[in-house]
Design brief:
Blueprint lengths: L11 H5 L2 H6 L5 H17 L8 H16 L7 E2 L3 E3 L10 H11 L7 E2 L4 E2 L7 H8 L3 E5 L2 H13 L3 E5 L12 H7 L3 E5 L7 H7 L4 E7 L15 H11 L3 E6 L17 H6 L4 E5 L10 E5 L1 H9 L2 H4 L4 H13 L3 H7 L1 H7 L2 H17 L7 E11 L8 E8 L4 H9 L5 E2 L1 E3 L2 E5 L8 H12 L1
Parallel strand pairs: 1-14, 2-12, 6-7, 6-8, 8-9, 9-10
Antiparallel strand pairs: 3-4, 5-11, 10-11, 12-13, 13-16, 15-16
Helix pairs in contact: 3-4, 5-14, 7-8, 15-16, 17-19
């Protein structure tokens, strides 16, 4: 009978004495290395295949496990999916100005809640307010930690224990299995659904008004489109109905678009200024979607209502930190010069880059791969279509350019790209690995080429 090799697994102390493992102790805490050694032994014990048979294999396994253990779970990746505002990959990358602002504020103390003029305590709510009112035309503004928080805070302030009237066609799911009705219910408001999935009229809202009504709610359907036999009520037509009921009209605008992108073919999405001009009492939007800044929930609207939000104790639980405020303020300041904003804010630059420029970059990358021995039959330039992502412009298909990699096992190559020191996230279409450059910053091209060449090797 053949002896089970797992019976002769070495002890933890024995492996710690190996020369290669002792070298690891020079750069990592002993307790961490010991724990990693213990986990490698346990992995070998549980494996169906025989354990490593020599010291070198043990050292390699321990080194690999230690690297994995020390690697941060939140890592930089190269987004080559063609989805610019990819929620799973962190949505909008920050502009250089925003990164610089975060660095300055993070490395020391700041005026987060201090008034240097009076020498007394200040409020973090003053930061970004002037820029937001300037850019949107609203009376006042408040920043919380995301758009869902903005909706919860607004409903809790004005409709806690009261009715919040909303169209059935706007009770959407916003990603990650989070649904607007569930979020609204947590605010303490009672949902009153009106209309049907595909058609809602002004009379539906008017009939639902009562003494129990606390707010009317309008949610912009930014992550899908309805076509055919449909009808919905625009915000401007809800304004007089809310006035009749003496309640605020809360508009979840979502995308945070501050510029007209129709010159680049992106049409049909209202801007934040449009949303405010339509007359809603409060307008809520995200900071890390079309605005191109950090994750934040931005509320703009009537000054008295914003004041009520600030006084709600829940505002403290939902407030943002100094780094978010620094990044958001720097991003907003770029919008004072729209022409500059389009090039300085990475998300906008990606969305508006001419497809010919992307093709030129793709050609350069293919040439780089060819110089590294990748055959021309494997790596080629191709036209493709990208998307905005982040629940904005759901029907838009943006002409783009990509590198297609034609290999025997696209699944294996895609996994190798994801498994690199800097993961490259691609997609597989028609049996080929697609690296769409619409969502890759130009300064990453050289690094991308090196990572792809390594994966192909």
């Amino acid at each position: 009978m053949t002896a089970d090799p797992r019976r002769s697994l070495p002890a933890v102390g024995t492996l710690l004495e190996l020369g290669g493992v002792r070298r690891l102790l020079a750069s990592a805490p002993r307790d961490l290395v010991t724990d990693v050694v213990r986990s490698v032994i346990e992995h070998a014990r549980q494996a169906a295949t025989p354990a490593p048979i020599d010291d070198a294999e043990w050292v390699r396994a321990i080194e690999a496990a230690l690297v994995q253990r020390q690697r941060s779970t939140l890592r930089r990746v190269i987004n080559a999916t063609g989805v610019v505002l990819h929620t799973n990959l962190g949505r909008a990358p920050l502009a250089t100005a925003a990164l610089d602002a975060v660095r300055v504020v993070a490395q020391g103390f700041s005026t987060l809640e201090y008034d240097v003029v009076t020498g007394t305590r200040g409020s973090r709510h003053v930061h970004c307010t002037a820029l937001l009112t300037e850019l949107t035309g609203a009376e006042d503004a408040l920043v919380v930690n995301n758009c869902a928080a903005a909706l919860v805070l607004s409903l809790n302030t004005f409709a806690d224990g009261r009715d919040a009237i909303i169209s059935r066609g706007e009770l959407v799911e916003i990603g990650g299995s989070f649904r607007v009705p569930d979020i609204m219910a947590k605010s303490g408001a009672r949902l009153v659904e009106v209309g049907t999935t595909n058609r809602t009229h002004t009379d539906d809202y008017r009939r639902a008004l009562s003494t129990r009504t606390g707010a009317l709610v309008s949610v912009h359907r930014s992550n899908f489109t309805l076509e055919g036999f449909v009808a919905s009520v625009p915000v401007r037509d809800l304004v007089p109905i809310a006035a009749e009921g003496g309640v605020p009209l809360l508009h979840d605008f979502g995308s945070g678009l501050l510029l007209d992108l129709s010159p680049w073919g992106l049409t049909g999405e209202p801007s934040a200024r449009d949303a405010v001009k339509a007359g809603a009492s409060l307008v809520m939007m995200s900071g890390d979607k079309m605005l191109g800044g950090p994750q934040a929930g931005i509320i703009v609207g009537k000054a008295d209502l914003i004041g009520a939000l600030r006084r709600n104790p829940l505002a403290r639980a939902l407030r943002v930190d100094k780094l978010t405020l620094a990044a958001l303020e720097a991003t907003l300041a770029l919008y004072r010069d729209p022409a500059h904003a389009v090039t300085a804010i990475p998300a906008l630059a990606m969305l508006t880059t001419p497809v010919m420029a992307l093709e030129a970059r793709a050609s350069n990358l293919v040439a780089m791969l060819s110089a590294n021995g990748v055959p021309s039959r494997v790596a080629r330039v191709a036209r493709t279509e990208a998307t905005v992502g982040g629940g904005a412009f759901p029907g838009a298909r943006i002409p783009s350019a990509a590198i297609t990699l034609d290999v025997a096992s696209p699944e294996l190559l895609e996994a190798k790209l994801r498994g690199g020191m800097v993961p490259v996230v691609a997609r597989i279409t028609d049996g080929k690995v697609i690296l769409d450059l619409r969502s890759v910053c130009p300064e990453l091209d050289d690094e991308l080429g090196a990572l792809v060449a390594r994966a192909l090797a």
